[in-house]
Amino acid sequence: MRERNKLKMHDLIRDMGREIVFEKSPNNPGKRNRLWSQEDVLNVLHKHTRSEEVEGLSLNLPTLEDVQSKAFASMKNLRLLQINSVNLKGCFTHFSKELKWLCWHNCPLKCLPPNFHLENLVVLDMQHSNFRQVWKGNKVLDKLKVLNLSHSKCLTKLPNFLHVPHLEILILEGCTNLVDVHESIGLLKRVVLLNLKGCENLKNLPKSIYRLRSLESLDLSGCSNVDKLSEELGNMISLTELRAEETGIKQLPSSFGLLKNLKIVLLSGSTGQSSKSRLSHFLPWMSPKRSNPISLLPPSVCGLRSLTALVLHDCNLSEDGIPNDLGDLVSLEALYLSKNNFRNLPQSIGRLPKLDCLSLSGCTTLQSISELPASLRDLNANGCTSMERLTNLSNLKELRNLRLAKCHKLVEINGLESSKFTLYIQMQGCNNLSHDYRMSLLQVLSLSLSLSLSLCSRMLTFFFWSSH
């Protein structure tokens, strides 16, 4: 069982099951309860073989091919149907009313026909469809739990969700012509995942979307025309994951700190924001300084204590763009601050008790790194071209990977010679380190249990391996 309750089956078990099904009717595929071989499926469909036993049918065609719908008329027990790149011809009333899973990638239809009875459908997977709209009118699909319309590039609007009350997963990734989301989405009391990634023409979210109190994962990455989130965001109390990379969002609402279950936040590369405007409401203590020092304390810091990953890559963060009290995020394990414009890091980073990975690559104005937490295992400072000194690393007993390539001004790495557990060190282009220091470093670190060390001095690169 994988994340989000996905069940993965080993190929050997799958093949054993297929063999059992095949042996029940070796010569007549229409009498098997499952059909997966393209040859067998096309044989049954083109010959209109009676196939009352069939409960599951899978057909994946490389290019669009016509199939007559009446070929399914005898499949009264059909529950799972996969017909990718199939152009169905004829009346849709021939299909079984027992159908629970329909997967129809590259569907050429502009919308689902009204005589396609799907009242028992649980999963509708229509990726890469030609839909302009999903269905006309108010279609009743009160058992539907999953609706996947990914990469349906002609889709311009979503249906009324009034009659799909049990929907849990809505995937609209890559629907590049979608311009709005139907207001009725707020009626979905059970939805846990909403994926709008790459919906580049989506302009704003309906206010009703913030009533989705059951929503756990929201992906707005690539929605470049979405430029704000409502103050009502704080009502989404179940939210654990927010992905909003490459959006037009300039400022996060102050209610953001109320999302107490939030674990993962990705905000990299959003357009047109300054560090102040972007983060001033991300963490409440980023508000402008006041005369009363007590006001600097985060009033809702406890709301972010579940945060495990914070990605602020390429967000134009300057010196004051990182909160001084970042160390209060006690569950934080991964912090990505690459390609930003600050000169120093707040000392409070050293108080992050669970920080495992810190990425600062491409921070060309960063001058020094100090006060790193003892829990750190991976430090990436590649391309920090202004950095001259690195903190004392002797307390980093868990450090496994150290990346310092192209740190041209680096002259000193305190405590690295005391690190006996680091497995990988990358230092190409650190040409300001003296020759004597590099040689002594090689000699001392050769005592490491297992080490990969890459050094560069002008045109010469040394690769050194050793083990006890």
UniProtKB/TrEMBL annotation:
Enumerate the UniProt keywords alphabetically. Answer: Repeat
The cross-references to InterPro entries, in alphabetical order and at most eight, read: Disease_R_plants, LRR_R13L4/SHOC2-like
Residues forming the Disease resistance R13L4/SHOC-2-like LRR domain are 302-405
User: Which GO biological-process labels does this protein carry?
Assistant: defense response
The coiled-coil regions, if any, are none
Listed name of the protein: Disease resistance R13L4/SHOC-2-like LRR domain-containing protein
